[in-house]
Description:
The protein is mainly alpha-helical. It is about 75% helix and about 0% strand.
Amino acid sequence: MRIAPRPLIGIVIFVAYGAVVSLLWAFTGLDYDAVAESSDTIVSGIVVPVGIGALLLAIVTSLLGWWRPAMREERGAGPRWGWAVPAILFVITLITIGGIDFGRAKTSTLVLIAFGTALVGFSEELLTRGLLIVGFRASLSEVWVWFWSSFAFGVLHALNLFFGQSLAGTVRQMVFAFVLGTVFYVTRRVTGLLVVTMVIHALWDFGILGVDNTDGSHLVVGNLLLYIAVILSVVLLVKILRHDSPEVADTVVRAE
Length: 256
């Protein structure tokens, strides 16, 4: 790494990314609920602001020399059965995407949504489960690394309040984002690769934006699976954090 990680560096990057994307979105004057209405709104509301944000994150990550620790998990992965969490998430995305009315939706619109959500998955994961984790780990225990990275993921979605989303809807989205951020944190730890959460995140958002063309009745099974994934993630989180605790680490060192 060219520059030694520090929590402040991650926080500054987080604030800067949020400011850049927000300013670019504000410039369009687009309402949050209208972001997937047409090809033009997708480009102006997702592709352009998030694409520029993603480019800036890539440049900053390169300048810092943080690509490897951001993209690859260098700590313990947890039990093998933990792979059930990303597997369930992947199934949920397939169920959600399967509910899209591809016959009615315009191909060009779906392609732009796919591209836009790929940018979202890349940038938001690199920011919160990548750069923030690298920065926080410089001086925080892993419990706080998990908490603050997941909390930041929730705060990132608070920006939607300024673009037309209701206060109640924003609060619900923030809470959900914190929970989903925890599941994504566990996925990073279990798989050892941030790219897994990037792909799942992108597919997740693609399904959410695309499924507005249906009544959403097919999501019942998906919601049930999500509850299971959250429960498994909590169990895994406890195991992972216990393994990373100073007491356990000190015991391992003495045993060696």
